[in-house]
Amino acid sequence: xxxxxxxxxxxxxxxxxxxxxxxxxxxxxxxxxxxxxxxxxxxxxxxxxxxxxxxxxxxxxxxxxxxxxxxxxxxxxxxxxxxxxxxxxxxxxxxxxxxx
Length: 100
Hints:
This protein is mainly α. It has one domain (3-97). The protein is built from 3 helices and 3 strands; from the N terminus they run H-E-E-E-H-H. It has helices at residues 3-9, 37-54, 59-85; strands at 13-15, 18-20, 27-29. It has a 3-stranded antiparallel beta sheet with strand order 1-2-3, covered by helices on one side. The longest helix is centred in the last third of the chain and has 27 residues, at 59-85.
């Protein structure tokens, strides 16, 4: 299942050729420069940890944290499904699961 579908199921919306997070704190372009889902996930986890550290001080950080966790969950589902569908799945194969 592609990332687009996973994000839409989590309340993300299409607007101006990009998927926007439910709290409107971030967006993912349809033609993302990131073909490596696992690398994107790792960077998103770091960002979520940072936002989470400040979530209790700011509603904006809490919303950003929620949106980042939504993206991480979607990436986890796509990566897991790719591994199940293709036991030889590698990081280099992840581009086919990006937004289309």
